[in-house]
Amino acid sequence: MSSKKANYGIDAPGVIRTLVFCSIGFLLTGLALGFINPYLQFVQHYHFDIRWACFGSTLSLSVSSLLMYNYSTNGKLKHRNRIIDMIEWKGDEKVLDVGTGRGLLMIGAAKKLESGKATGIDIWNDEDLSGNDIENARVNVLRESVSHKTFIKHDDARKMSFADDSFDVVLSNLCLHNIEDKSGRKKAIREIVRVLKPGGIAIISDFKNIDEYVGVFSKEGLKTTTSPKFWKDTFPPLSIIRAEKV
Ligand SMILES: C[S@@+](CC[C@H](N)C(=O)[O-])C[C@H]1O[C@@H](n2cnc3c(N)ncnc32)[C@H](O)[C@@H]1O
User: Fold this and answer.
1) Of all protein residues, whose CA lies closest to atom 23 belonging to ligand 1?
2) What is the spatial distance between Cα 80 and Cα 13, in angstroms, rounded to a whole number?
3) Is 156 a pocket residue for ligand 1 (Cβ < 6 Å)?
4) Does the beta carbon of 8 lie inside 6 Å of ligand 1?
5) How many other CB atoms sit within 10 Å of the CB of residue 229?
6) Tell me: the pLDDT tens digits for 80-125?
7) Does the CB atom of residue 137 touch ligand 1 within 6 A?
8) Is the pLDDT reported for residue 3 higher than 80?
9) Which atom in ligand 1 lies closest to the alpha carbon of residue 80?
10) How far is ligand 1, taken at its centre, from the CA of residue 174, in Å?
């Protein structure tokens, strides 16, 4: 086993950077306004102080960036366990992780398998995850000693290359919202349904569009249940949909 730990990256690094820059910008603006005489006269006259709005924005943006960072560095592994524990594993399952990134769910599932196989697909968008690269997914597979139980492939969620009824379990975390158009997200869900075997289970975790995904699964005839949002260790808070192909 490799001595180095797997690194699953920081989600939406550009968003975190923007939140930090904006919070510094608001802080500097608030401080600068404190030194401008005409502004202070304006405050005295109108009893309205924009500096508090600046400091409030600094606080909320910096807390949001810290919570997002904390999800990526701590919460992500807890959330992975939560998703993996929703399946009653037999060990021989064929599993697909849609939008695997650096292999988070694919590797989590592979650890539960004996004769089964976990496949991870992605198009490896830079903006969605730091170090988002097929090579980094391969490095994590080696570090977690699951290379004999995994297969990584460049494939788009909207048009998968697998045959119908290929997988017992389809997993996906924080992938589908990255597909900007509703019709693209619908295609991705319909692809998940197509490649799932009858009796198979899909577990989809995301922070928005939850009702939309449930609507498509239901229209395709799957039985769904949705969890409440997990505020404690995910940010933005994630929900989990469990969909069963009957
Ligand atoms: C925020 S990352 C999450 C990665 C991983 N699931 C995790 O939880 O660490 C979202 C991933 O979805 C992938 N993705 C976005 N659109 C996709 C698409 N149409 N098909 C496959 N993967 C996609 C991105 O490249 C990225 O790796």
Assistant:
1) 99
2) 19
3) yes
4) yes
5) 14
6) 999 999 999 999 999 999 999 999 999 999 999 999 999 999 999 9
7) no
8) no
9) 8
10) 7
92-128: b or e for each residue (b if 16 or more CB lie within 10 Å)?
A: ebbbbbbbbbbbbbbbbbbebbeebbbbbbbebeeeb
Tokens read off for 54: 């600046």
For ligand 1, whether the C-beta of 101 sits within 6 Å is yes
- Residue 67 sits at φ, ψ, to 5 deg, of -65, -40
| Nearest atom in ligand 1 to 175's CA | 12
pLDDT above 80: residue 214: yes
191 lines ligand 1 (CB under 6 A): no
**H runs (alpha helix) in the chain:** 13-33, 37-46, 50-70, 76-84, 104-110, 134-143, 182-195, 210-219
42-48, long-range: CB < 8 A, 24+ apart = none
Report d(CA 27, CA 129) in Å as an integer.
28
Q: What is the number of other CB atoms lying within 10 angstroms of the CB of residue 203?
A: 21
Provide the token pair at 232: 């404690």
Q: Which residue's CA is the nearest one to ligand 1's atom 4? A: 101
Rounded CA separation 84/69 (Å): 22
Hey, what's the torsion of the CAs at 18, 69, 142, 139, to 10 degrees? Answer: 20
> DSSP 3-state helix, strand, coil percentages of the chain (rounded to 5)?
45, 20, 35
Q: Does the Cβ of 206 fall within 6 Å of ligand 1?
A: no
- How many Cα atoms are found within 13 Å in the side-chain-facing hemisphere of 102? 22
Q: 155, 170 in Cβ contact below 8 A? A: no
Both structure tokens of 189: 């869900």
Distance (Å) from CA 88 to ligand 1 centroid: 25
